[in-house]
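Work Package 3 (structural annotation) set out to generate three-dimensional models for the target panel prioritized at the project kickoff. During this period the team completed the workflow that converts sequence records into discrete structure tokens, so that structures can be stored uniformly alongside our sequence database. As a representative example, we reproduce one entry of 515 residues exactly as it appears in the project archive.
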Amino acid sequence: MNDLIPSAPTARLIVVLGDQLSLDLAALKGADQARDVILMAEVAEEAGYVPHHKKKIAFLFSAMRHHAERLLAMGWRLRYVTLDDPKNCGSITGEIARALQDFCLTQVCLTEPAEYRLKAAVQDWARDRQVALEMRLDSRFICDHATFQRWAEGRKQLRMEYFYRDMRRKTGLLMQGDKPEGGKWNFDSENRKPAADDLFMPRPLRHAPDQITKDVLALVADRFDTHFGELHPFCFAVTQEGAQEALEHFVTEALARFGDYQDAMLEGEPFLYHSVLAQYINAGLLDPLAVCRRVERAYYEGSAPLNAVEGFIRQIIGWREYVRGIYWLKMPDYTQQNFLQAQRALPDFYWTADTDMACMASALRQTRDHAYAHHIQRLMVTGNFAMLIGVNPHEVHEWYLAVYADAYEWVEAPNVIGMSQFADGGILGSKPYAASGNYINKMSNHCAGCRYDVHQKTGPQACPFNPLYWDFLIRNQDKLGANPRLSQAYRTWDRMGDDKKRAYRQSATAILKAL
């Protein structure tokens, strides 16, 4: 792929990043296939700035190589730099500089990187080298930065629900004129059912590795053997066609029950009725609006109920667009927010899954094995526990960024810093998502097989979430006591007897010391 002749002086270098694997990419609009050169590169700097899950690296490298093959077949001039290329500079900016020199080019065009860190690096490099850089907005998102800024301006609270309604109006999804389908904007109250373990559970579509993927798996096994996670079995789609097949499989096999059970957790059932499509959407293999329109069609065809379809669409045009807006509105300082001044180190068992807490062990094992956990496992199990014990939110942020195949900083940081850890002090969420073991017992079957007793509130056999919940609230009362959504909890604490309060605090202290 690298034996191209130099280009004409007016030609451009078009950079396609690893999460921009779309044929409709903004940087490709108006490009000259005969003269412009596309650059794609696997670089150590991007693969290793956090210890990304082996499956995540393999997915992206294989998807990049397949995308490059498709671009070549379409007639594009393309340089693809593999990780093991002896000339590989190890960074995106280094590979841009090398390609400019090799092809006698002076102009660079790329779609805006999704992460602030990389965008700043490319802009700083271009300015220092006096390189002509055109950076185009990423048209794969529905709401651009300026539109989100206008929406946020002057608002005391940036609540997703109101933003989501604007996105429904803009896209026309599930709308009847200017009214929402079914008379309500949000059917979340119908989407909180615990799942019985005798329900039929579909599985996400499994894709057999082809030779390109097998080569990547061997590379990852060799170069990233110390990284987190299991590499095999590897079943992700790595092409647009494969991702589309995964979407169709979800719509026909799982969507109908997605809404009812989207918050449920079951031992040994990592996927339930979830789509497991986020890594394909975030990498560019699926267009988010097209995905929503396909899901919407299932409702109008009568194959999926409104609560399932609305709940799924809300996650994409509501939550996904919203957290991206928060990210770009609040960076570069957002990932360093620490409203509760939490300083504890992340426990080692987040990497090993070696814990007696059944819910934690289950979420951590499936994260290790599949590079996946659904939103309630991330928010109400692993995230909840980290917040209750007071882990430094930046450490939590870097862990989530590393371990999930769909994690990129623009989507992961607001979910962790804001939603999971309340480290932004309420910019994103109206209260901390703190919960005792009762919530987990209600939404899962983990507690029945746990060595701890969810019904015991204190003592060595008590579910750790129980005393930690109260300890968290009292430890942070100076910052959270005035929060109206926590007023009932603080009133409950005030009514407790001194012996009960003391037992909660002593039990929590014992757990924290053991960590």
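The radius of gyration is 24 Å.
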